[in-house]
Amino acid sequence: MKIRPFLAVLPVVLVLGGCAVDGTPIAAARQVTVTVTAPGDAPPPESSAPAGSIPAKTPLPDACSLLTQEEANTLAGRTLLDMEPAGVEFGAATMCQFAGNPEDPGIAQVTVFVGDGVEKSLQIDRDTLKHTFTQPAGIGDEAWQEDGNIFVRKGTVWVQISLVLLTDDAENVVPLQEAAKLALSRF
């Protein structure tokens, strides 16, 4: 006896009821298509995703893997505290901070950010707040730099390196670019 593969495409209507705005009942309906396959059947074609669906995200590199402690110390020109990861996406830290060491005179901090928030931060600084930016050449697929920050993109991944240091920002332009090149070389 031969078993035939099973593939069904079922229209499903979702209805939301019982909701109200200002005492007025709301009913909403939406039709979606659900594809059901039996084990061993080929998966449905990729184009079967409903319009407007969110594409799968690329896993991000861990922000704390992009600069070493020694590299952060070199960028800041002093000894910083050990890296502190924060924010997690797909098991990787999206922020890594090297805070100033209270035993070392002066103020310094290096922070590395990875992910969608970097692009949003760039857009706010550049387009909304109208910060002054330059576009350094030869760093990733796209790079933007302002005083104390460099934003770089490789493929779909954005990285920001932020440097807080009480020196003339012009002195930090090239060191930030070098740090960005190192970070991009690690993924």
Automatic annotation (TrEMBL):
Keywords carried by this UniProt record: Signal
Signal sequence, renumbered to the chain: 1-20
Name of this chain's protein: DUF3558 domain-containing protein
Organism lineage string: Bacteria, Bacillati, Actinomycetota, Actinomycetes, Nakamurellales
